[in-house]
Amino acid sequence: MNNTIPFQYQCYACGHVTKVAEAYHCPKCDDPMALSAMGVMTPDEMKATPRSLWHYAALLPITDNKNIVSLGEGATPLLEASTLAEKWGIKELRIKNETVNPTGSFKDRQLSVSISHAKETGRDTVAVVSSGNVAVATSAYAAHAGMKAVLFMHGQAGAGKIAQAATYGAQVICVDSPRPSEVFELCIKACDAFGWAHLSTSGMHNPYNVEGAKTIAYELYQQCGNDMPDWIVAPVGGGGLLGGIWRGLLDLQRMGFIETLPRLAGVQASGCAPLKRALGENWSFQESLKHPWQNPETIAGGIADDILFDGHTALPAIRTSNGAALAVDDDAIRKGVQTLAHAEGLLCELTTAVVIAALEQNTELFRNQSVVCILTGHGLKDLAGKPIKDSMAPPHIPPELKALERLPAIQGY
Q: Which domain CATH number covers 287?
């Protein structure tokens, strides 16, 4: 079956719209442009329960469905978090559980679409820059597609994710730099030199590479119907997830399924918060690129991006939805992992725990509101890391009942 629904490029800085071409920077203001679907889906199609994100193929930029590379990504559950809702005075708190994707994170959505596009354009080798989840997803999807993959992992990458990515068979290269933007420069030069497809999930470098994220918005409509939340809260590194969800919501509005958009909140670590700073300074996307975050320092390495690689969509996402940019420190992030696990039985990675910390620290903002949090990655990816191991180290005792009775943790049982 062929997907012949057209797309166009749209600039969210100046509003310019043009045909899809090789050049995707706006000829009027030079901002990167994003892909914008021009097709529609019927109400019955949008209300049907998807089996994967490719249920929405009519809104995804793959011409021929025989080129689709899928491991069953998407169609993730929306879970009630009533314990935390009651604790923080939230009217309704639901969690979009992206941890059940094939490699354990929402990045599978983006890589399924981008590697399908690489296949459609005749590529056999792909390369990415990553702190972990993108590399893992790229390695898995490249293996499934019969492609080679080269993974440039920067100084924020965790050992567990490096091992997971290597297991799928890709070539892992650790680059000694804590700044993702420097590693991007190397990856882009390598792709130009060797003819590799650059699949890093950065819309400013390739608009196809972030398209999968917008399917989260489509699924939320299918799961919520007319009861869309007041707020959608998501972690932000480069901003592709937040920008993708926003563009998915705009598609829903364009097709007449929703009238108003939920407010969007992007959460970062206080040790690397370029989104919050850019909004506070009222910078444009291009102005934000002139001020990279110096020396990112946070345990949430997955969102420690020194620049907003998708600021051209993340910034207007917050500005036009009357949203918010929030930041939380590492202690709150550690606590967020345990808070969610203890209260709701969900184990998330440190990168995702920022949203839990933000809810706890901004109770007045979300009080009596309906909220959906995006749980982006599974906590099993972080269990080998020192911040998690240190906070969860169990006590050691001899095989004696009296020793057990003396443990403070047991005295409350």
A: 3.40.50.1100
